[in-house]
Specification:
This protein has about 120 residues and is mainly β. It is built from no helices and eleven strands. The chain starts with a strand and ends with a strand.
């Protein structure tokens, strides 16, 4: 019954913003680091952002640094990705994943983000 369910994707113009959400259930959310990945057509899956289990530390891919912010609310069992100043190259399916320290134990189904004028 483990689930990670992403939402918040959609179509946005360049320079716009979106906030992705990932709702977790069926596991001990508060002990997992969480990650956001994305995969664009014809490209490899890319690690976009990560956050430690307590939310104390974050890390970002160079391509999104300064534009994206990952956060989490352990009481609500939620992780978020705030995406600002979006660019066409941000177009991808975005996935959240629960990182054990050794592997991603759980994955969401993905949500489509399309940045186009």
């Amino acid at each position: 019954q483990v689930q990670l369910v992403e939402s918040g994707g959609g179509l946005v113009q360049p320079g716009g913003s979106l906030r992705l959400s990932c709702a977790a259930s069926g596991f001990t959310f508060s002990i997992y680091a969480m990650r956001w990945y994305r995969q664009a057509p014809g490209k490899e899956r890319e690690l976009v952002a990560s956050i430690t289990s307590t939310g104390g530390s974050t890390n970002y891919a160079d391509s999104v640094k300064g534009r994206f912010t990952i956060s989490r609310d352990n009481a609500k069992r939620m992780v978020y990705l705030q995406m600002n100043n979006l660019k066409p190259e941000d177009t991808a399916v975005y996935y959240c994943a629960a990182w054990s320290g050794f592997q991603n134990d759980y994955w969401g189904q993905g949500t489509q983000v399309t940045v186009s004028s």
